[in-house]
């Protein structure tokens, strides 16, 4: 809970889209241990919710996420055990997002730095307000953004990732879109319209198909080419046996809207 009695992560669901909102704007939505644990719990719950087809990750206030809570980190300077637990917990949350059987869209308004930038990079899709900014500035304070580097380097090219990591400089939303950190940078006035328009488009698809596709996407990324094709050939053959694939093909040929059974 926050100091105001509000939950650290707010949850709202409507029409197949669940929004998880980081809700500690007075601390710049920093990823404290408590925030990470709260987010992890919500991700675990939403993973099993049949009614949720898409997750939107948002934030309250004018900062998306400022990374780890440096006040908390300073208080625990003497505890290597705490530092390791903190970074392990953060890594767990990022992997939960990647492994979640539903697409996750980051709604980015304001600044996303360090582990906050990592959070954006870990989501499947990201839409940013054109006023948003991004950085991995750990190098500026003597703490290289090594864990954010994992997600960043899997989303943008090697040289773009290294430029952000080595300089620690802020980049604009337009530049983030240019290098592939986010999908789109849009006027702040249409941020929600764009995010939830995309979420509804994705949520209209078969949940079973989305789960299959997302899992295969991340598995094949790390494979040699031949192994990737072997995996995805099997995935497609298995997918073809699903009710929704057969329904979708029949609906397309019959020129009607498919009726998904999510199986």
TrEMBL record:
Keyword vocabulary terms for this entry? Fatty acid metabolism, Lipid metabolism, Transit peptide
Q: Which domain of life is it from?
A: Bacteria
Q: Does the keyword Hydrolase apply?
A: no
Q: Name one GO molecular function term.
A: hydro-lyase activity
Which CDD domains does this chain map to?
crotonase-like (cd06558)
GO biological process, any: fatty acid metabolic process
Q: Which Pfam families match?
A: ECH_1 (PF00378)
Function of this protein? Answer: May play a role in fatty acid biosynthesis and insulin sensitivity.
Q: Hey, which family's this protein in? A: Belongs to the enoyl-CoA hydratase/isomerase family.
Name of the molecule in the record? Enoyl-CoA hydratase domain-containing protein 3, mitochondrial
Q: Which organism is it from?
A: Marinobacter salinus
Upper lineage: Bacteria, Pseudomonadati, Pseudomonadota, Gammaproteobacteria, Pseudomonadales
């Amino acid at each position: 809970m926050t100091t105001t009695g509000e939950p650290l992560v707010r949850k709202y669901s409507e029409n197949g889209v669940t929004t998880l909102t980081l809700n500690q704007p007075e601390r710049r939505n920093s990823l404290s241990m408590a925030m990470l644990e709260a987010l992890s719990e919500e991700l675990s719950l939403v993973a099993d919710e049949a009614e949720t087809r898409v997750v939107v990750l948002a934030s309250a206030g004018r900062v998306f996420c400022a990374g780890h809570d440096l006040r908390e980190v300073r208080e625990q300077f003497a505890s290597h055990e705490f530092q390791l637990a903190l970074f392990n917990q953060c890594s767990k949350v990022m992997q939960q997002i990647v492994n979640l059987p539903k697409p996750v869209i980051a709604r980015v308004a304001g600044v996303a730095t360090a582990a906050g930038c990592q959070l954006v990079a870990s989501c499947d899709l990201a839409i940013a307000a054109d006023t948003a900014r991004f950085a991995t500035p750990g190098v500026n304070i003597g703490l290289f953004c090594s864990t954010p580097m994992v997600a960043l380097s899997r989303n943008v090219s090697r040289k773009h990732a290294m430029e952000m990591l080595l300089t620690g400089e802020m980049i604009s939303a337009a530049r983030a879109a240019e290098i592939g950190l986010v999908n789109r940078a849009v006027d702040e006035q249409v941020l929600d319209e764009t995010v939830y328009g995309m979420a509804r488009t994705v949520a209209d698809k078969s949940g079973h198909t989305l789960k299959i596709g997302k899992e295969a996407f991340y598995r094949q990324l790390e494979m040699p080419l031949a192994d990737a094709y072997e995996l995805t050939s099997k995935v497609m053959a298995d997918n073809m046996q699903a009710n929704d694939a057969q329904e979708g093909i029949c609906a397309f040929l019959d020129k009607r809207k498919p009726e998904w059974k999510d199986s």
